[in-house]
Design a protein that fits this description.
This protein folds into two domains: 94 residues, no CATH class; 37 residues. The protein contains two helices and seven strands; from the N terminus they run H-E-E-E-E-E-E-E-H. A five-stranded antiparallel β-sheet has the order 1-7-4-3-2, with helices on one face. The radius of gyration is 35 Å and the shape is rod-shaped. The N and C termini lie far apart (71 Å).
Length: 132
Amino acid sequence: MAEAQNPARELGGYVNPTALRPAESGTHAGVTAKGHAIYAIDFDLAVVVATEGEIGAGAKLQVASIINIGGSGRSTDKHQTTSRVKFAVHVTMPVDTDSTEERTARETAMNASKRQRNANIAAANLRQDWRG
């Protein structure tokens, strides 16, 4: 995983990031300090080791258009072992910086609009109080 961390970071993502808090929904595993969702990529690998070898020679019976009885034959001995490995890698995906900048600009404009509206309401309330 360490080898994957720098390339992912250069692209704006993270491999095995530190979680600020656990996820509030089942769609991701947690949230980073920057608010990025942490996703778990589950791996379920089957490792198969197969061996095959010849064993003994002996008689065989072959049935075809001509019958052969006797002779030498070959047989194979096959063994197979399967092991399963399950693990998860936590990652954050790169965030589109353009969308982040657009969101920040939108939020800044909305906050400025709210501040102006609150200032107008406060001024109207002062005028109302002054008039009595």
